[in-house]
Amino acid sequence: MHAPIRGNASMNRTFRLLKRRLVGAIPVLLIVVIGSFLLLEAAPGDAVDAYVASVGGDAGMIEALRQGWGLDASPMTRLAAYLWALLHLDLGHSVAFSRPVRDVVLERLPNTLLLMGAATALSFALGTALGIVAGARPGSARDRALSIGSLALYAVPGFWLALVLTIVFSVELRWLPLSGMETIASGKVGFARALDVARHMVLPVTSLGLIYLALYLRMMRAGMAEVWRMDFTRAARARGIGRRRIVLSHVARNALLPLVTMLGLQSAQMLGGSVVIESVFSVPGLGRLAQEAVGSRDTPLLIGIILVSAALVIVINLLVDIAYAALDPRVGASEASA
């Protein structure tokens, strides 16, 4: 009788936490949209200036373009119109692609999600495992070697690491594709296409994931070093429990909670890092799309990308909060009752 009651209580806490986070996300997204619009308006030039600079045009053409693209209205009028359209889930129209912003963003979003998801899984899983190896025996030669290696890896710029990996594995060894998401006009379908995409994603995922792998390794190692000094760990050692069991069941488990929090905090930085990686490897994702939008001064597209990116970060942090509450019910109870 008690298990269903505890299960229902946990589910209720999760729903209350979910509700609070979703309600709090609305003003955050509103601030992001308004702030992005005002910053882009403060920058010199607009989409018409970028278009005329590339193809040329006279005063009449410039005036017609401003009227056609709705740039002849005041900034506050355009902001009010954009917010009204946003209430109806309309992200506007891209002047560079001549398509709805929602269609352009949704077309590129899966590629960015694939890159971020794979890089996050690689960095978190491998970083945590190496952190456990390093923290199992603090001060040992293995611990010092992994700590020095992770520090050196974390200090390497992402674009430099991407270029080195490209030169070694694509140019010199020719083991992996140089760029893109898949082989152009290959005609592959099903498993063959999935394998082709996986080969193209090895270098981008490795380049993005290795930087954050070092961060998770160092955090896990530091957390385990702190847990080793706690009383319950000393008590477990005094009772004669094996070292491997203490490491896996007590030390690593308690040191894992801060890493779950960091997983959500690093999602925004990883999204920003994907801009560089997508540019280096020509991955058609949101990062490369943002670069193209900046070049054409496509304000509606830029705001749409920023809005979707902010919503993505909020969703990731929400999932992290739920996972943290599941790992530590005390946190979930305090969050839900707050």
Automatic annotation (TrEMBL):
Its main location: membrane. The keyword Acetylation does not apply. It is found in: Cell membrane. The chain crosses the membrane at residues 21-40, 113-136, 148-171, 201-219, 301-320. It comes from the Bacteria. GO terms for cellular component: plasma membrane. PROSITE patterns: ABC_TM1. It is a multi-pass membrane protein. The keyword Iron does not apply. Keywords: Cell membrane, Membrane, Transmembrane, Transmembrane helix, Transport. GO terms for biological process: transmembrane transport. Pfam families: BPD_transp_1. Gene3D superfamilies: MetI-like (1.10.3720.10). Residues 109-324 form the ABC transmembrane type-1 domain. Belongs to the binding-protein-dependent transport system permease family. This is Peptide/nickel transport system permease protein. The lineage of its organism: Bacteria, Pseudomonadati, Pseudomonadota, Alphaproteobacteria, Hyphomicrobiales.
